[in-house]
Design brief:
By secondary structure, the protein is an alpha+beta fold. It has 6 helices and 9 strands; from the N terminus they run E-H-H-H-E-E-E-E-E-H-H-H-E-E-E. The strands form 3 sheets. Strands 4-5-1-9 form a 4-stranded mixed beta sheet, with helices on one face. Strands 6-8-7 form a 3-stranded antiparallel beta sheet, covered by helices on one side. A hairpin with a 5-residue loop joins strand 2 and strand 3 (about 75). The two termini are about 35 Å apart.
Length: about 210
Amino acid sequence: MERIIDVYVLNVEDLLEKADQILPEIAPYYVQKYNKAKAEGVKRHELGAGILLSRCLNVKEDFQLSFGEHGKPILNIENNDNTKEFNLSHSGKYVVLAVSDDAVGADIEQIKRLKLPVLKRVLHPCFYEQIEADYEKENAKSESDGKLILGKSWTILEAVLKASGTGFITEEYNQEEFFDGWHTRSTELDGEYVISCASRTPFSMNLIPMTV
């Protein structure tokens, strides 16, 4: 039976107006990141990450969190009744939280920000050449279709990197066998964003809109 990965989606555009309400509810780690941030967009993302963890996984204290070798946040099982795995991502006006029974990676990206040369710099040629061909085919139909190919390709790469816990710190992503054994899913959001998730076992994505 195919698993379900819940993906909580929060629009953070008006979160700064609710900061006084949100800050007492979230883990001090995210309060500190909010206070240190200079850009309003970053402040919104930190508030969004903190409140999603609070509301969806009951993470309200720092001792409930641990961090992997490359900085990936994970639940500290010794201090949680919850044994779920999670991953956070943000872009533009959204923060997303993917929750699963197994290791999961999630990424959201605003489609208009993506460029083909970026993928060429980081992907193994065998992957990039197929993406380039798909992009040129779809872009010939419409620019939005071409951008969607880039959005799916980039967020899938990021989701696998985050699920593995390495990110771009290592160069494993530039190996021909990098995607072997990974299952991925992608979906559009508002026609402007793409969300992708990655896991070692087959799954379906369940998008859950959140409000504060």
